[in-house]
Amino acid sequence: MTQSHHTPADHSTASPAVEADNGLSRQDLEDVVERVLSRARAREADAGERADRRSEDSGAAGSGLLTGRARELADSGQEHSQHDGEQQDLDERRALRRVGGLSTELEDVTELEYRQLRLERVVLAGLWTEGTLEEAENSLRELAALAETAGSEVLDGIVQRRLKPDPATFLGSGKAKELRDIVAATGADTVIVDSELAPSQRRGLEDVVKVKVIDRTGLILDIFAQHAKSKEGKAQVELAQLEYLLPRLRGWGESLSRQAGGRAAAGEGIGSRGPGETKIELDRRRIRTRMAKLRREIAAMKPARETKRLNRRRNSVPSVAIAGYTNAGKSSLLNRLTDAGVLVENALFATLDPTVRRAQTPDGIGYTLSDTVGFVRSLPTQLVEAFRSTLEEVADADLILHVVDASHPDPEGQIRAVRQVFTDIDAQNIPEIIVLNKVDAADPFVVERIRQRERNVVVVSARTGEGLDALRERISESIPRPETVLDLLVPYQRGDVVSRLHDWDAEILRTEHLPEGTHLLVKVREDLAAELAEFAPEHAPGFGAESA
C-alpha cells in the first residue's frame, strides 16, 4: 500500500522577511523541498524493493515451509450460510483489524504525520524431536495459522531436527545464529517458537536474535484475550495470563530491581538501610493478589451455571456437547442444527464462550446442544485450569459430538489431541460420535480411512448441509430416551396432563379419544411415571395392552 506524502505549499509567494529570517533565498527553499520529496520517493521505491526481496527470501531462507496462507486457514469457498444469521459480532471484530504494509518506523521527522498501526512481521521456529517430518511441518503450519489469527504477518519458518531442546537457547547456538540471519534478511520484528519456553531460554534466544521472542503458549493466550467477550471468559483468560506471567517476570534495571542498604548501595548508605522489598517482589505480590481476586470472581459465577445445569438434570433433559479441534466447524454445525446464529469465522479459537441451545430429535425428543471452546495440540495447562468451569459442559454431557476437520492434512492427530483433553477433564468415558465435517473439501480416501478406524462415525458438511439428517438420527439413537411404558386414560378436563406428555421428555406411541377421556400409550422417564400413576387404570382398554 503506497503511502501518501504531504506536499508543502508553494513557496513562490514567500515574503522577503521570511527569507531574511531564515537566511535562505527562494531558490534555496525550493532546493530543500525538492531534496525532501526526492528522499521520500526514494524511500517508497526502496520499501517496495525490500518487500519484493522479503517475499523472495521467505521462499529461499529457512526451510521454505510457509509459502502462501496457513493451511488451517485456507479458503474453502463461501464462509457463511443462511443458518449462521447476520454475524454482527464478526463485523464488529473485523472492524478492529490491523492493516498490513503500513510502516511504524520513524526514519525521518517528515514522516511523523503518516505513522499508522501495522501487522507484526514474524518468523516461526520449531523443533522436530519425535514423529515424522510431516507432523513437524503440520505443527509449524498450525503455528502460522495461530500467528495470523493473532494479527501478524508470517514471513518464514524453520524446523530443526534435535533430540531435545537446548537448555540455553532452545534451538542451540548455531541454529539461533541462523535464525538471527533470517530475521535480519526478512525484516521481521518477532520470533514465535512452536513450544513453551522456559524463562531462561526465552532470554537467551532474545539475546541472540535481537528481537522479541514469544512462545506458543503466549501466542494462544493473546488470541484468547482478543476473542473473550463475556465477563466470565475475560476473567478466565486474565487468570491464565497471570499464571503464565508470574514465573516470567523480569527486572527493569538495578534501580528498580535491587534492594539498597549499607555499602552495597554504592554510597547511598544512610537513610537507605532496612529490610526493603525489591520491585520484582512487589510485582509478584500484586499478581498473586489479583489472581486470588479473579479466582473468587470465577467461583462466584459458577453457581449460576450450576443452577442451569441442575435444572436440566432435574427435568431429565439429555445434554449433547459439541467438542473438537479449533476451526473444525463446531459453531457452523450448531447453527445448522439449531439456527443459533453464533459467530462463525475462518480463524482459530474464534468463539470462546459456551453456547447452549435447545434442539429436538426427528421424533420430538428434546435435548440441549452445547458449543464449547476449541482444543489444540499442547493446549496450555493454564487455559485448561482457568476454563475448567466451561469445560464442565463436556464432562457432564450425555453425548459428545466430536467434530473433526476431514479436510485437514492430519485429522487423526487432531482426534488424538482432543481425546487427550477429554482425559484431562475426566470426559473420556462419555459416549462419543465422530462427526467428520467439511467432507465437501476432503479427500474421500482420508474419510474412508477414518471410518474404518473409528466405530461411531457420521460424515457431514455444515456448509452444504450434507449428512445432517443422518447425524440427527444418530443423535436420536444415542441420547438417553424415556423407557417406562404407561397406558393412561386422561379425563378431558385434565388437558394440562396431555400437554405435559407432548413436552420434550415424553414419547407418545398411540393416541385414542374415548368417551371417558384421552387414551394414551406413552414412554416417559421414571421420575414422571410416579406423577402419572393416578391416570393408569387397572383394566386398560385393549390397544395399550396389545402394543405393550
UniProtKB/TrEMBL annotation:
Residues 27-57, 69-92 have a biased composition (Basic and acidic residues). Its main location: cytoplasm. It holds the Pfam family GTP-bdg_N. Residues 1-92 are annotated as: Disordered. Residues 1-15 have a biased composition (Polar residues). One of its GO terms (cellular component) is cytoplasm. Residues 318-483 form the Hflx-type G domain. Signal peptide: none annotated. Monomer. Associates with the 50S ribosomal subunit. Belongs to the TRAFAC class OBG-HflX-like GTPase superfamily. HflX GTPase family. This is GTPase HflX. It comes from Kocuria turfanensis.
